[in-house]
Design goal:
Blueprint lengths: L3 E5 L3 H12 L3 E6 L2 H7 L5 E4 L5 H5 L8 E4 L5 H13 L4 E5 L3 H9 L4 E3 L6 H9 L3 E6 L4 E7 L9 H4 L1 H5 L2 E7 L2 E3 L13 E7 L3 H6 L1
Parallel strand pairs: 1-2, 1-4, 2-3, 4-5, 5-6
Antiparallel strand pairs: 7-8, 8-11, 9-10, 9-11
Helix pairs in contact: 1-6
């Protein structure tokens, strides 16, 4: 099922996040008060909407209540961030993520309802996009331009099946390099051992195959 995600604030982080989410198949609403920025991103997202985050009425009229997730990406604008988080939660958005410039700002945004705080020095827009769109991903690591290493949860439909039956390499281009269950990571992999609900897989795959893994 395609996720609907709104990104409020299109600075370097917010713009990259919105474009990356869209490239990965999400329905993306990009929101900013600057009309020139909105025009520049219009072809790279699903919807580009001009709205002032400081104005509650402006935010209430753009349809945040239809979003699965709202990302407030204005780390330097405390007032706009507070208003955006409050309006999103009031409109029933299930998950609200906010960027904060420092720990104090993060504490304030958490207190008024943000479900998760992002700190610029800890997460980039691209990495955040991957974790938002792909719920089964626990960790993502770049290996080089083409390859990545992922730690992923066992999908519900994989439980009880072994790696031979799943044929992950054939279906998704995935190479399993380690298996973790019962808190133990093992490099020796028994392909005939059924996966359990808490099994985690460490896999390598081409970045071009990420969409296949996410959609299926």
């Amino acid at each position: 099922m395609t996720k609907s995600i709104a990104v409020i604030g299109l600075g370097r982080f917010g713009k990259k996040l919105a474009e990356s989410l869209y490239e990965m198949g999400a329905d993306v609403m990009a929101v900013d008060k600057n009309s020139e920025i909105i025009a520049s991103v219009a072809d790279s997202v699903t919807y580009a909407v001009e709205a002032d985050a400081v104005n509650a009425d402006s935010l209430k009229g753009i349809g945040l209540n239809n979003m699965d997730t709202v990302v407030v990406a204005m780390g330097s604008d405390l007032v706009g961030s507070i208003m955006s988080v409050m309006v999103a939660k009031e409109q029933g958005v299930p998950k609200v993520i906010a960027k904060a410039a420092d720990k104090r700002m993060g504490q304030i945004l958490t207190k008024i309802g943000a479900d998760k705080i992002i700190y610029p020095e800890e997460e980039t827009g691209v990495r955040t996009a991957r974790t938002l769109v792909m719920d089964s991903f626990l960790e993502f690591f770049d290996i080089d331009k083409n390859l990545c290493l992922l730690e992923i949860k066992t999908k519900p439909e994989w439980v009880g099946k072994n790696l031979i039956e799943l044929n992950l390499r054939g279906k998704y281009g995935v190479n399993v390099v380690a298996v973790k269950d019962h808190s133990e990571m093992r490099s020796f992999i028994d392909p005939k051992r059924p996966l359990e609900a808490d099994t985690e897989l460490l896999v390598i795959l081409e970045k071009s195959d990420l969409g296949r893994l996410q959609k299926n």
